[in-house]
Amino acid sequence: MDQPVVVAGAGQAATEFAVALRAQGYAGAIRIVGDEPYLPYQRPPLSKDYLSGKSPYEKLMLRPEAFWHEQGVEFLLGNAAVKIDRARRTLLLADGEDLQYGALIIATGTRARTPPIAGIELPGIHTLRKIDDVKQLRPALDAAKRIAVIGGGYIGLEVAAVARGEGRDVTILEAEERVMKRVTCEQISHFYQDMHRSHGVDIRTGARIEAIEGNGQASGIRLAGGEHVPADLILLSTGARPNEELASEAGLPCQDGIIVNELAQTEDEHIYAVGDCTRLPSKRYGRTIRLECVQNAFDQAKAAAAAIAGKGVPYDPVPWFWSDQYNVKFQSCGLSTGHDEAKAVGDIAASHFSVEYRKDGRLIAVDAVNDARAYMMGRKTIALETA
Fold first, then answer.
1. Sign of the dihedral defined by the CA atoms of residues 85, 88, 91, 94, in that order
2. Degrees, nearest 5: CA angle 337-261-79
3. Which residues contact 194 (CB under 8 A, 6 or more apart)?
4. What is the CATH number of the domain that holds 149?
5. Nearest CA to 144 among 130, 121, 160?
6. 337 lies in a domain?
7. Pair 29, 19: CB distance under 8 Å
8. Which letter, b or e, does each residue of 208-243 get, where b requires 16 or more Cβ atoms within 10 Å of its Cβ?
9. Which strand (E) or helix (H) includes residue 65?
């Protein structure tokens, strides 16, 4: 390949792609473009150890700067990719530079989904997706006594655990009838609701928000019916949306994610997409899926690198994910959507159990609470039974 390989996005997927492409023997130029000023870093610890101060900035870095020099990978940081010219095979950057590419990898990740709530633009409302979000959230958290979290997903629950561990009052407002409803079953949801409540978190399910209130600064949330929930700080934890605009504006098909094939290739043979921003086909689950997890960032990036090197193998993963809250480790593998049976195994009262999800008798997912063995056995079984 005469032209450089260019990567739009400088997160975990971009990192793994560059490393994998070098391992495949590619000796040409690799240029990684990122809108943040930081070398690639881990995002899961942002809402856990990094937010709590247990893990320093240096431990977030996926690879030291010296490693990238040794690998001959060039970074263009703090300079967003803004437009793809497919005919000329160029990527335009925010500073006006045009990068020529032989292959382009889109690894633009996701951003926080912002719900249409009156007052959402007020200062004092935070999201948590990037290092700079933590830099704003941490001092605000230090100054706050009352925290309100909108949304009962993983990030919201993890931040709630950190805040309660610091002695702050926390209220979680979840629109659904239980937390984590989109990703897990009633047994797991109720376990986590009970656990957080036992630590003093006020969880309101079925909550309907009318507005965020405040005079120049968010000071609380008005619920349907008129109740006011006071807050010194509000965290939005209402999901993520894929950063697919770079692809869609270039005419590439997108549908809640950039559409790719089993080799991570888009409709354009010279353009690939990897990580959270993609929607990929899964024969294993019989539909297209979009995965927001470290596993996919790693493995799909490797699949793209192999395809570019002419060694492509169809990618059809068994996804895995984890979450740490208080002293409880949650590990999940597979996708439970569409299950017709959910069976709890183990001792829920002792916080050591798992839930096995089956469809037509086949194991399709496992959620494990402080049960690493069940999680590992589940991954192996799912890989065999859904192949």
1. negative
2. 100
3. none
4. 3.50.50.60
5. 160
6. yes
7. no
8. ebeebbbeeebbbbbbeeeeebebbbbbbbbebebb
9. helix 65-71
Two structure tokens written together for 356: 């096995």
Which residue carries 């979009």 as its tokens?
Answer: 290
- Give the phi and the psi of residue 70 in degrees, each rounded to 5: -65, -35
Place of tokens 């169809």: 314
Residue numbers of the domain that contains 15: 5-111+240-308
Q: What is the pTM of this model?
A: 0.95
Closest CA to 18 of 60, 81, 58, 70: 70
* Domain closes at, from 308, 342, 366: 308
**In a shared domain, residues 13 and 93:** yes
Shortest CA distance to 47 belongs to which of 167, 145, 183, 162?
Answer: 162
Choosing from 236, 255, 281, the residue where a domain stops is 236
Tens digit of pLDDT for each residue in 97-141?
999 999 999 999 999 999 999 999 999 999 999 999 999 999 999
The verdict on 247 and 225 lying in the same domain is no
- What backbone phi and psi angles, to 5 degrees, belong to 249? -70, -15
Report yes or no on 318 lying in a domain.
no
High-pLDDT (> 90) share of the chain, %: 96
Whether 289 and 264 have beta carbons less than 8 Å apart is answered as no
Give the residue among 366, 360, 2, 57 at the shortest CA–CA distance from 184.
366
